[in-house]
Amino acid sequence: HESYMLADIEPWVPKDDLDGHLLQIRNHLQNELGVMVTHCSPHPFGVGFFIVRSTLTRDTLVEAFGFHYNGVNVVKFRNHDRGSIGGQRM
């Protein structure tokens, strides 16, 4: 479970748009940052649940300030076993 993480985005978007943002985030990680995403899915405590290939990669993404993934929104990652900090799917 060490390579699991949750994603949150700012500014918030309507609940109906979250699935599209989940795919944009995955594509940004893979295509722009070269991160191997082995799994992503919606999650009730954030935009999505992601599994990346290594713990080092996960730790780097979690420690970062965030990434502009579509020119408007910023995604921030956190460890999957940390409490919710504003999950949008609730």
TrEMBL record:
Pfam families: DUF7597
InterPro entries listed in its UniProt record: DUF7597 (IPR056018)
Chain ranges of the DUF7597 domain: 1-84
Protein's name in the database: Os01g0510901 protein
